[in-house]
Amino acid sequence: MSLPVQTHIIDGEQVTPAAGEYIDMIDPATGKLTGRGAAGDATDVDLAVGAAKRAFATWKQTSTRERAEIISHMGLLLGAHLEELVALEARCTGLSTARLMAFDIPGVMQFFQTFAENLEEYAFVEYPPVRTLPEAHDVKIVKQPLGVCGLIPAWNGPLFLAFVKLLPAIAAGNTVVIKPAETASLAVVRAVELLQQVVPPGVINVVTGHGQQAGAALASHPDVAKISFTGSTRTGREIQKMAAETMKRVTLELGGKGPGIALPDAPVELTARGATMAFLLGSGQICVSGTRLFLHDAIHDAVVERMVALAGALRGGSPFDPATTLGPLAYRAHYERVLGYMDLGVAEGATLACGGGPMTVPGFEEGLFVEPTIFTDVTPDMRIYQEEIFGPLLSVIRYSDIEQAIAMANDSCYGLSAGIWTGDPIAAQSLAHRLEAGTVWINDWHAVTGDMSFGGTKHSGYGREINIASMESYLETKNYMTSFETDPCAKALFGLVHREA
Ligand code: NAD
User: Fold this and answer.
1) Angle 354-357-360 (CA atoms, 0-180°, nearest 5)?
2) Where are the beta strands (DSSP E) in 175-270?
3) Whose CA is closest to 185, among 22, 407, 309, 298?
4) Largest CA distance in the chain
């Protein structure tokens, strides 16, 4: 594959960046240049928002049937180019093609299915029953699109995170400007380029660039009605402040520090395999990763012993090799940050059960691979317990009292994911009720279906994504109140100001 040099896609056209600058994207598995993306700025964002605003005037008038058909064609078109898209995604993220084909792509295809199949039945108009007191009114509640939506996803699953926002936004009748993560935009830009074949110009635009420039310009643009953001809690706060100036709606999908609680009756093999997958899928670079594991005394040692063995069996390598089970971290600054947390864990007095440093992978000496790392004897005062690390690092905490485990699990500023490992999954549902998280898995982790209503609480953000209801946050609700009483003297409120009549 030749080195892609990508432009923005604005109003159906390839548009070179106004400042003429590009961003190098590095393959984290090899350390080599893998493509270049346009370094957009406020001028490019303004152009894209203008195109989206013009396109909105006609797109909002399309019927749900037309939009459902276009969404269905979009899915087919991308399906015909999967191999190319997956290769681009793997090259700039280091995510394995096995993971992309088993998790990200089926997820994206489920989003297409959800919106293509359910859009026509969605209640864009509601007719509540007529209330006769104090006066009969016919009430109609209408849901209308907001306008131009700015979509800002993170780098850890670029296609998945872009399409989970894009589909509800355009299905609702909005137009969009996407600002993908600067380190990993190759597949998203190519996908948007392909989609121009089936979507009217200006409905889906993409402007690449750094967060501080292109991202901030989008989040503060006066003609953008809504920002949907996935990324760190720190940037989420900035976005919220920028959006406040122009009263934009905001959806924030932010960080997490997912607690898993293994009950005394949890099957050891299920727990060990599940909890290992929960913190190592995507090399731990997933917002919902299970990164704090509370193990009951009765099974602590057996589970840790088995997890250490399982973690040691993971293989680093090419994202294109089906045997690869552990990918690199996404970019160098992040890699160094994660290694810093491994040193910190030792310095804070946790016990290193396995890993703790860089991983050497023969043939990939320049790759950003890190050993799967498990710390035991972790305590709540440690930073490795409290902070989101976003790498293959697990903190294990021993407990003996379930009330204490629940309190510790909830003692976090985050509230995105949690899990329970148990011998009694039905009974565990009442426990799930007590965990402060948007998603609680029981005897599983990371599973996603198109029916989920996904999102966080506390500093993990707010708003929900994935299922058809996620369209709500891309719609404005409006009431039509119609009275059929034409005698002014019989009208309930008129009399309050027309006493003399
Ligand atoms: P990040 O906040 O640095 O960047 C995310 C996006 O925001 C990128 O596109 C970036 O260019 C842009 N951005 C950065 N600064 C900006 C600014 N000032 N204004 C506007 N846009 C700006 O996050 P990241 O490090 O790329 O991603 C990792 C984080 O994302 C982790 O905290 C992870 O938990 C979170 N995440 C959350 C979810 C979820 O659904 N809750 C999913 C994936 C990742």
Assistant:
1) 105
2) 175-178, 204-206, 224-230, 249-253, 258-262
3) 22
4) 94
pLDDT at 136: 82
Q: Tell me, yes or no, if 465 is annotated catalytic.
A: yes
Strand order in the sheet with 475-483: 125-126, 137-145, 475-483
Amino acid, res. 376: T
- Is the distance from CB of 23 to CB of 29 less than 8 angstroms? no
Q: Which atom of ligand 1 is nearest to the CA of 155?
A: 26
Q: Return the structure tokens found at 365.
A: 């000496």
**Token duo for residue 185:** 């935009």
How much is the pLDDT for 133? 74
Phi and psi dihedrals of 210, rounded to 5? Answer: -70, 150
Of the candidates 179, 182, 257, 287, the residue annotated as catalytic is 287
In this structure, the number of other CB atoms found within 10 A of the CB of residue 358 comes to 17
Both structure tokens of 18: 């106004």
The confidence score (pLDDT) of residue 1 equals 64
The string of DSSP letters for 58-75 reads HHTTS-HHHHHHHHHHHH
Per DSSP, 233 falls in state H
What pLDDT score does 422 carry? 98
Label residue 169 exposed, middle or buried (CB < 10 Å: 0-12, 13-18, 19+): buried
Note the pLDDT of residue 501.
Answer: 54
Measure the CA–CA gap between 202 and 214, rounded to whole angstroms: 18
Cβ-count burial 60-94 (b if 16+ within 10 Å, e if not): eebebeebbbbbbbbbeebeeeeeebbbbbbbbbb
pLDDT in tens, 119-153: 999 999 999 888 777 788 889 999 999 999 999 99
Domains of the chain, first to last: 5-254+460-479 (3.40.605.10), 258-442 (3.40.309.10)
For 172-268, list the strands marked E by DSSP.
175-178, 204-206, 224-230, 249-253, 258-262
Q: Which two tokens stand for residue 30?
A: 């090899």
Say how far residue 389 (Cα) sits from the centre of its chain.
17
Q: Which token pair is 113?
A: 């299915």
Q: What CA–CA distance (Å, rounded) separates 296 from 323?
A: 33
Q: Which residues of the chain have a pLDDT value below 50? A: none
Residue whose CA is at the smallest distance from ligand 1 atom 22: 211
Tell me the CA–centroid distance for residue 231 and ligand 1, in Å: 2
Is 287 considered catalytic here?
yes
- Point out the ligand 1 atom lying closest to the alpha carbon of residue 253: 41
